[in-house]
């Protein structure tokens, strides 16, 4: 029996847990079953109580206290512990039928998505180990407000691409919190961020405005590493961003969907992409109406 799941990932505060909550509400309203797995050992409050919570296996607070680790080292320790105790996941998930969408709410530490091999191991276990065999996709969230700062946007896009390459599962990139940029960025301008390329740096309004004001933008103003502002306004920093943007353009892997978690249509649209990625609908049996529903329907006519 196939199982279906989505890993909701992305940097801290990107709106992962909010999206999970909106997705669960939407699934419930549409009479679809879901199973919510919290894999963030530091998460405390939830709109929907998790069906499985990593905190029942290990708590970040205990790890930090007992092992003398900081929050990031503690989180890595928690995931290493999870990988040594995968029965915790198998026992809870193995009996789920193909009707369920399993939603994994991930933590926001960026290290997990960029260079430590923990998440690839976990994704491999969930999707390919034979124990669970979940048809899994990743939903990587990045805050849409990042588009205001080109350097931030490309650095976020690079980490999305890094997660994509490391995880080797079908992957959706999503610009979250779209409500925050509505009215601030014109629709036509926003389009350019959907499939990012180097042209975004060439017509950066900040550079255009500085050039217009007669500022010299093609030289470095300072090479003193302490003078962060001057470095970030200098030509070397722009060359670095251009190199990052070119890399992203050359790989041509990242394009974004848009999400406003408070808008049900927007959540429904993202869900349709998730369903499509994991081919959820292909495995579903036609559902028969229950007797009372059938009678009710005829009475209405
Ligand atoms: N305006 C707006 N705010 C949002 C949206 N989604 C989330 N937020 C807010 O962003 C903040 C962070 O949201 P979370 O859902 O906790 O983000 P997260 O990615 O789970 O955060 P961590 O688990 O700490 O990494 C909260 O204050 C949310 O209310 C959205 O679509 N629009
Ligand atoms: Mg969260």
UniProtKB/TrEMBL annotation:
Q: Where is this region: Disordered?
A: 211-231
Supply the Gene3D superfamilies for this chain: P-loop containing nucleotide triphosphate hydrolases (3.40.50.300)
* Any GO MF annotation of the entry: GTPase activity
Question: Would I find Nuclease among this entry's keywords?
Answer: no
Q: Which key words are in the record?
A: GTP-binding, Hydrolase, Nucleotide-binding
Q: What does this protein do?
A: Small GTPase required for proper nuclear import of RNA polymerase II and III (RNAPII and RNAPIII). May act at an RNAP assembly step prior to nuclear import.
Q: Which family does it belong to?
A: Belongs to the GPN-loop GTPase family.
Per UniProt, subunit arrangement is: Binds to RNA polymerase II (RNAPII).
Protein name (database record): GPN-loop GTPase 3
Q: What is the lineage of its organism?
A: Eukaryota, Fungi, Dikarya, Ascomycota, Pezizomycotina
């Amino acid at each position: 029996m196939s199982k279906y799941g989505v890993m909701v990932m992305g940097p801290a505060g990107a709106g992962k847990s909010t999206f999970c909550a909106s997705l669960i509400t939407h699934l419930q309203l549409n009479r679809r079953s879901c199973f919510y797995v919290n894999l963030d050992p530091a998460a405390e409050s939830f709109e929907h109580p998790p069906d499985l919570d990593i905190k029942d296996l290990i708590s970040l607070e205990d790890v930090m206290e007992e092992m003398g680790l900081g929050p990031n080292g503690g989180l890595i320790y928690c995931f290493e512990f999870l990988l040594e105790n995968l029965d915790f996941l198998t026992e809870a998930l193995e009996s789920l039928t193909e009707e369920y969408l399993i939603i994994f709410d991930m933590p926001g530490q960026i290290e997990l998505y960029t260079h430590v091999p923990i998440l690839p191991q976990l994704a491999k276990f969930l999707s390919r180990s034979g124990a669970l065999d979940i048809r899994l996709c990743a939903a990587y969230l990045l805050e849409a407000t990042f588009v205001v700062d080109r350097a931030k946007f490309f650095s976020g896009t690079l980490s999305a691409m890094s997660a994509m390459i490391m995880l080797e599962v079908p992957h959706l990139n999503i610009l979250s919190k779209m409500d925050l940029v509505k009215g601030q960025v014109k629709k036509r301008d926003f389009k350019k961020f959907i499939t990012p390329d180097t042209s975004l740096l060439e017509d950066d309004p900040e550079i255009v405005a500085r050039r217009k004001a007669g500022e010299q933008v093609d030289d470095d103003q300072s090479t003193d590493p302490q003078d962060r502002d001057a470095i970030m306004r200098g030509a070397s920093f722009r060359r670095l961003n251009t190199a990052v943007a070119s890399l992203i353009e050359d790989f041509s892997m990242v394009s974004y969907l848009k999400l406003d978690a408070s808008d049900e249509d927007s959540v429904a649209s993202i869900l349709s992409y998730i369903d499509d990625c994991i081919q959820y609908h292909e495995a579903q049996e036609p559902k028969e109406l229950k007797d009372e529903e059938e009678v009710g329907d005829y009475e209405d006519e």
